Every structure is written in C-alpha cells, then in structure tokens.
Amino acid sequence: MITITMPSSKGTAISRVSNVMSPSSYDTKGQTLAFDARVDSFFPLDHSKVIHLNLRVKDKILRAIVKASAVAKVTWDTSQQLTAESIVRVTGHFAQHICDDEVRGNTAYATIYVSALDVIAWASADLPLSSSHPKKMLSHVDLEERLSNRILDVRYAASGAIFKLHSGMCQLVVEFLCSNNFHWIHTPRIITATIPGDNEYFHLPYFGKDAWLAQSSQHHKQMALSMDMQRVFEIGPVFRAEVKSRKSMRHVTEFTVLDIAMAFYDDYHEVVEMIESMLVFIFHELQRRPQYQKLIEVVQQMYPDVRPFRVGLNECGKVPRISFLEAKRILRDEIGLESDDHKNFTEQEEAALGQHFRVSPHRGKTDIFTIDQYPASLRQFNSQPNPDAPGFSNTWDTIVGGREICSGSQRIHSYRDLCDAMRAGVCGPPLDPDAEQWQPYLNAFRAGMPPHGGCGLGINRLLQSFLGLDDVREATLFPRDVNRLRP
C-alpha cells in the first residue's frame, strides 16, 4: 500500500490511499483514511439511522458504515440517495478486519466507519447487471447479455481478472522475445493482395481502389527479415470473415495475434523450439508470479471448472512433439476415433488429443504439445516441402488445452522455388508470380531472403486455453463475430 499523508481541513493528518489496500493495512485500525471507491451495494438497517455500504476499491471490497449521528447532514442525505456503481470519495477510519466474506466474487476484508462522503460520479439507478439486482450474478447471466453490457461485466472481479491476465500475457511475450533479440515491428492492416479461393477476407473500398483487411502480417514479417532484421514479432489485430463465428466458441472475426518470424541457422526446428520455449515461459511465469497467481485465483472462484494448467516436458526438458501421422494414429489406436490421414484435425479431434496428453503418463501429463510435419496440401503455398518426405511440409501446430493456438512453418526462401510453388498450387488454386499484386512481396525474395520460419498465435485463444474458458469471447474485451458489432 502507498499512502500520502495530507492535512485535513481541521488540521488532522489523513492518509490518502493511492493503491489497493493490502493486509498490512490491518494495523491501521482507528487511522483516518481517504480514498475513492465504487458503490457495490447498499442497504439501510431497519428502523435506524444507519446505512451499510459495500465499496469496491479495485478488486477489494470494503464494508462501510454511515451513521446519521456521526456525519454531517449533507453526507447523510447523500448516502440515502446513492446508486450502485457510483464513484464516491470517502473519509473514515478502519474498525475491523472481515474474513471469508464474499460479495459478487470479491472478498470483503475490512470495515470502515464513514465520517464524510462525496459523490464523484453518479451512476443511473436502472443499470443492467448491477448489484441492485441480486439475481443478476456473473455466473448466472447469459454470456450474450454480459457482452452487451461489457463495461459493467468487466467490473466484476473474475471477469476483470481475465483481461488483467491478458495484459500480463502480452507483457510476458514482450519480455521473452525482447530478451531473445527480437525486434518489435508494426505492419499495415490494409493490404492489396489476397489468396484466390480464400473467401475470409474483408473487402475495403480504398479511394476508388480495392483493398482488404489483413488476416495476418506474415508477408510483411518476411519482408522485414529480408531487411536483415533477423528476428521480428508483432502483436496486433487481424481480421477474418469467419462465418462459423456465428456458432463457434473459438472463432471471432477480429482478434489479437502474436506474429513471429526469425531466420535460422541449421534447421526450422530452431524456430519451433523458440516458440515452445516462449510458451513454457509464459505459462510458468503466470503461475509463479504473485500478481498473476492472485488473478488466476479470482478467475477460479467464479469459474470452478477452471483447472490448473500443466506443463509436462519430455526427457530432454522440451515440449512433447509428435508428427501429424503419429497424432492420427493415436486418435485411431489409443483414443478410438476414426480419423483421415489426408484431412486436418477437427475441433473434436484436437480436444481428444488434448485430453489424452493431459492424463497419459507416457505423454507427459501436459496441456501443451506440438504436432509437426503436416501434409503440404493442408498448408499455405509458401510452406517449405520436406525434401525427405514427399507430400509433407516443414510445418507445425502447437496445441494448448486441447485447441490449436499456433500454426507455423518454415517458409520457402528461394525466389525461384517460391515462384514454382505459386504456380504449382499444391494447397489451393495456382497463383501467378508475374501478377502485379505479388511484386512487392516477391521483391523481398529477389533481393535475397535468409532461411526462416514463423508462426501466428492467437492471444485470445491462448488465454482461453490457459484458463480453460468455454468461449473465446470471454477472453476478448470487445468481441466481434457474425452477430456482434457492439459495443
């Protein structure tokens, strides 16, 4: 706790609370304090001149008692007119510490007797999801209603903790990558080239020309590598016209992606290991650092099905890794599901593999593993074919909590090979490398491109999978899908 001692109008020292009060504040019994808070709920005691308030100070709850006999008339009148969610400035003194008392997922930890109270900002009396409607508890409210009232929803401790963890996850990403000599770049979201046959681009009229919103920053990342930047990353929004976002719990039309690209020396597995190491670092630090541990505990209180995340490493201390064909064999032989070697994994198959790796001792009891060597027909045109395994490519997916959260590949770096791959159309319609729209991209390869690889990783889905949330929109502050453009 940080306090600043200020003289009051009567000359008495008042400690102004400028941060959330911690347990060390319990020895301040009788000390006069001033702080700002939100009114969580309030109720008068029957037939008495006493009002009880539940006040939220960040993620903590203070129980405040206003006595008509102890405050000025203006304070008493104001207390009687309070509305839930209003912001108040309170002066008073601590009376006692309260243990094991829950208010809307927040722990009430202290009682304060009020000596003065002013309203900083009034809230309307008819707000949805407010504490004045006891049945409108976070765990009992339909997700669509919560999303439509996102501002109020995120004021709940558990919902707010999710987005503080989202912030923490991004900070850990930056910490790890910058410590490994990556450069943080920013690339455009308005592009002029799309892949024929891909109908998930949003068209954007652009001053009499055609443009589209980017699905990833992959091509611009590769251009940056051709500039000899060696290792680059970006965190930003991407856009995908996902029709299935109408019903899917893992797809939205705008989401936050971590894009990574790096040159390697010997083998593309250098890229795979870098990304796996980053994920292990993030998961370990989220569960080790006290500020994140507390947020996870708050989420677990409101979502009792959320389980601890397991990071099981193999005998070499690395994330378990299997081939595409081995994953298909496990589905058929060990899990008992029919699965086609020529088709990508369904959501159900990914979930089954995730559960298998989580509970199987010989698989490491882990919530994270990588599937390597996908068929070339399932990946992008610029993915490097495996010269030792015709029909397969140097590509991978990382599965977290039973969901694919990261797709990556070694990219073709030879200009001639890339043009041949575009014409061949192994994974889609053939592309014309002589078309004008491809020239800015191909110029980076004409100028000499180092061997490299990279991936795109959905931050929202990563957080969803880490916490075990059912719907990715719970890990998206203002989600966009087929049905939602507001708030």
UniProtKB/TrEMBL annotation:
What GO MF terms are annotated?
aspartate-tRNA ligase activity; ATP binding; RNA binding
Query: For the Aminoacyl-transfer RNA synthetases class-II family profile domain, which residue ranges apply?
Result: 231-487
Q: Which InterPro entries match?
A: Aa-tRNA-synt_II, aa-tRNA-synth_II, aa-tRNA-synth_II/BPL/LPL, Asp-tRNA_synthase_2, Asp/Asn-tRNA-synth_IIb, NA-bd_OB-fold
Q: What is its EC number?
A: 6.1.1.12
Q: Which Pfam families match?
A: tRNA-synt_2
Enumerate the subcellular locations listed in this protein's record, separating them with semicolons. Cytoplasm
Query: Out of the domains of life, which is the source?
Result: Eukaryota
State the GO CC annotations: aminoacyl-tRNA synthetase multienzyme complex; cytosol
Please classify the protein's predominant subcellular localization into one broad category.
cytoplasm
Q: Name one GO biological process term.
A: aspartyl-tRNA aminoacylation
Is ATP-binding given among the entry's keywords?
Answer: yes
What reaction gets catalysed by this protein?
Answer: tRNA(Asp) + L-aspartate + ATP = L-aspartyl-tRNA(Asp) + AMP + diphosphate
The EC class name is: ligase
| Family statement drawn from the similarity comment of this UniProt entry | Belongs to the class-II aminoacyl-tRNA synthetase family. Type 2 subfamily.
Write down what this protein is called.
aspartate--tRNA ligase
Q: What is the lineage of its organism?
A: Eukaryota, Fungi, Dikarya, Ascomycota, Pezizomycotina
